[in-house]
Amino acid sequence: MKKILLFVTILLIVSIEPTKANNQKSSIVLNLKNPGDSTRLAELDRYWVKLAKTVQEGDFEGYKALYHADAVVVFASGKNKTSVPISKALSSWEKGFNDTKEGKQHDKVEFRFSQRIGNETTAHETGIFLFTSMDSNGKVKAKYITHFEMLLIKGENGWIGLMEYQKSDGTQEEWDALE
Fold this sequence. Notes:
CATH class: Alpha Beta
Number of domains: 1
Shape: globular
Helix content: 25-40%
């Protein structure tokens, strides 16, 4: 009887513990203790798809709407480490959005995640983004692989970014490892 009770207890503990995805390259952790996580992650996945789509379409207003008006962007890679309000970052990115919308360039951003923490109204996402900008002839103008963190809250109209932290440059190998 004690052995059966011990076995059932161990089985219960193992089935409740956080598990990792089967893909050895993936480091996204799934927390099975909270059934709401799958809903939150699906909503956040839609946020990232929408963010990528606004970049690809040159939809500046749509991109801007995915951030809180008082959001902050922290740039820690490169020589000029700084923290700026989203309004300042957006003003420096607006020309790229307009050029994309007008077909002068083609921009694309992709996201992969190493950690996703949160609850039904808050989220902290960690990963790498790959931004590529090509001229109208398909020649690569810029390519950035960047480690980032994003702090988000869920508002009345869905998830919005509060803080984007561009931590450091990444490598192709790091990008591939999160596939």
